[in-house]
Amino acid sequence: MPPTLRRLLANPELDLRLLTPETGLPAQALDQAVQWVHSSDLADPTPFLSDGQVLLITGTQFDPAATAPGDFAPYVARLRDRGLTGLGFGTEVIRDGTPDGLTAACLEAGLPLFEVPYRVPFIAVSRYVADLASEELFARNTWALKAQRAISLAALRPDGLTATLAELSRQLDHWVVLFDATGSVDRVFPPDALSASTIAAVGSEATRLLRARRRSSSTIVTGGETLTLQTLGTSGQLRGVLALGGAGELDQAGQQVVTSVIALAGLALEQNSALDRAVGHLRSGLWHVLVSGDTQLASDIATQMWGAMPAEPVRVSLVDTPIDGVDALSEWLELRVAEHPGSLFYAADDGRIVLCFSDGAASPVEELATGFGLKAGLSDAVGYADLARAHDQAAQALDRAREGDERIVSFDTISRQGVLAFLARTDAREVARTTLAPLIAADGANGSSLVLSLQTWLEHNGTFDSAARELGIHRHTLRARVAEAERLLGRDLSSFHARADLWAALLATRV
Q1: Alpha helix ranges (H) inside 340-386
Q2: Residue 129 contacts residue 36 (beta carbons within 8 Å)
């Protein structure tokens, strides 16, 4: 228990007498911690004082004729504003007794005033406070050693991180919250310690610290409670945030215990990260085994690690890896696997994420691509024997998604467009633009519609009557436009090869 003014006044050997009635003082005025005892008769000793001190005086700084409260008020106000815990007046040195005006001024200011008898030297008061402070320091250091030992033993348990944080909460009598690398609440001790509003406030600050991507700490106040947050991990590779809150601020011993836990938690999270990387490599290896055709081996290992593989038929999806938020994506996938066992397998695949899931199960692709803003390609439904073909389909669909505005492209969409549509892609667009350039230039120069007319004519298999009706023009007008296009292109469009080539050019430019 730290030294307080109440403990100081209770020492019978010092025989100190409180002059300002406790009922007239602020609540807990006598229970504030006394940091030190200082003596000075300067008219303004505040430059040499600090918060929480007790000042002892003999009254030489006052005019001998001063008796009224107003004579002492400025001096007392300076001490109060400096944050002093109390004022002691040594009697029979300069004055007989303590001036009533000083007592009244202290009572008005809410500053406890006590009288020090002549027989009690100031050094005795200082020594008593020093002894109490030493006892408190020894007790707190002893507690810190015991607390650190208990926490270290907790760290040796199977779930060392959970046990460590629970023990920290118990030792400090504070609530403790661990946020993961995504800013989501990972663990809370005690479980029901926080309100939804407090969790939201702490979570917002934890997310801010994580986004800065460097080691840091912060203190916020919410609901009248002071909350302390500290990042875990190294700059650029933060693993989470530890938040503490509760009644009162931590002293030096408490901070030492928290520092040791931060080191243990950071180490545990780093080990978990290393384990996650190893598991990730195992997933990638199993995926290559699956694609190579050894389904039984991959299934046996996956079943022991995560549960049964998705039932056939399955679909394969390839998803771009986010530039930022890889940890958040992994967290989401792990949660999905845990919530829907046997419906999803995922792995890293050459800078992408590959998903394999049952065709009949709810597809995770839409939620993943939308939630993380990623492009994805989706294969047809296949058996495990055709997994390599499905992987190629997903890769082709992902390439198509990257080229367009669609977030998810299914291989089924590509296959319905035909082989020619697939060939008329990015690499062919510049050639297609060059091929159609004479027609586009002519349309721009005289406002004609050669490109649209040709496209409609080809869609109607070169039939003039039906194509002209759709365009709303006479069939002879359409014949004239086709003839003009043949002249500008230098091609005879009566041959299948020429028509197919022109159709590919139109598909490639999407006009």
Answers
A1: 365-372
A2: yes
Q: Give DSSP secondary structure letters for 375-393.
A: -EEE---B-GGGHHHHHHH
Which pair of structure tokens corresponds to residue 201? 């406030």
Neighbours of 202 (CB within 10 A): 24
- Look up the pTM and report it: 0.46
**What is the CB neighbour count within 10 angstroms for residue 341?**
10
pLDDT at site 374? 86
Q: What is the mean pLDDT of each run of 10 residues along the chain (511 residues)?
A: 89 93 91 92 92 93 87 94 94 88 94 94 94 87 80 72 79 81 81 79 86 82 78 77 72 73 70 66 83 82 81 88 68 77 83 85 79 86 88 87 82 64 57 81 76 89 89 89 88 85 78 46
How far apart are the C-alpha atoms of 253 and 247, rounded to whole Å?
16
Type of residue at 386:
D
Contact 125, 57 (CB under 8 A): no
Q: What is the C-alpha to C-alpha distance for residues 155 and 152, in angstroms, rounded to an integer?
A: 5
Residue with structure tokens 């007794």? Answer: 97
Distance separating alpha carbons of residues 227 and 176, to the nearest angstrom: 10
Q: CB atoms < 10 A from the CB of 448, how many?
A: 15
The pLDDT of residue 55 is 96
Distance from CA of residue 193 to its chain's centroid? 20
Long-range contacts of 44-48 (CB under 8 A, 24+ apart): 44/75, 44/78, 46/78, 46/79, 46/81, 46/82
Cα 160–163–167 angle (5° rounding)? 135
Pairing of strands 217-222, 225-234: antiparallel
Amino acid 53: pLDDT: 94
Q: How far apart are CA 16 and CA 9, in angstroms?
A: 5
> Under the phi-then-psi rule, with left for phi > 0, alpha for psi from -120 to 50, and beta for the rest, what region is 72?
alpha
Residue of 182, 152, 352 lying closest to 264 (CA atoms) = 152
Query: Could you identify the residue written with the tokens 């359409």?
Result: 478
Largest CA distance in the chain: 129
Spatial separation of the C-alpha atoms in residues 218 and 241, rounded to whole Å: 11
Which run of H or of E encompasses 226? strand 225-234
DSSP class per residue in 132-191:
HHHHHHHHHHHHHHHHHHHHHHHHTSTTHHHHHHHHHHHHHTSEEEEE-TTS-EEEEEST
